[in-house]
Amino acid sequence: MKKTIYVYVLETMADWELAYVMPAINQAANYNLGEQRYQLKTVANTMEPIRTAGGLTVIPDCTVAEMEGEVAALILPGGDTWPEAQHLPILTKAVQYVNQEILVAAICGATLGLANMGMLDNRQHTSSSLKFLTGFSEKYQGRQFYQKELAVTDQFVITASPAGALAFARDILTHLKVFPEPMLTPWFNYYQTGDEIYYFQLMALNN
Fold first, then answer.
1. Would the pTM count as exceeding 0.90?
2. 108 is catalytic
3. Separation CA 3–CA 94 (nearest Å)
4. R_g of the chain computed on alpha carbons
5. pLDDT tens per residue, range 63-94
6. Helix %, strand %, coil % for the chain, to 5?
7. Where is the DJ-1/PfpI domain positioned along the sequence (predicted)?
8. What is the spatial distance between Cα 52 and Cα 89, in angstroms, rounded to a whole number?
9. What is the dotted CATH code of the domain comprising 3-176?
10. Mind listing the pLDDT tens digit for each residue in 7-21?
11. Domain spans of the chain?
């Protein structure tokens, strides 16, 4: 049975921040890795369509109240509304999942949501900037754990800068073992550098 990776969708969602990780998970079956172990599901507070920052319309697969089954991860993309109370249900789920040692991955503005829940107070993390967290979250107490990196993984939480979509994807794929290491390295290097040598390495591993 496939485990579910939930992707939270919200108005003004920064859709480009998911542009590496979602296709990689969905297309893993194309790389001769055996049976696909994960399914992606979009989730929101309601079943109403949402409009992303890039102008895409997304209809959620389910609501937060309907999240169930074997869960592998929860991915939280950026957006302009994370300080709002409407996101408390999914953030409550995030706390529950981490307590169950289920991965929660947040990028850009979503890290503010984690900060407001106290999830960054005792683990290494990153965000848009330290000033972003201290300036917009009155509850944030994790200054000493802040890392000026594109992506950071600690204690079942991945956080990433808005400029770190590729590193964010790499860390999620690594944690979930979507690709074996010999395949993940050329995959990351190709998108990071554009050098065709890594593309051919990736294709060779797929034969």
1. yes
2. yes
3. 17
4. 17
5. 999 999 899 999 999 999 999 999 999 999 99
6. 40, 20, 40
7. 3-174
8. 20
9. 3.40.50.880
10. 999 999 999 999 999
11. 3-176, 181-207
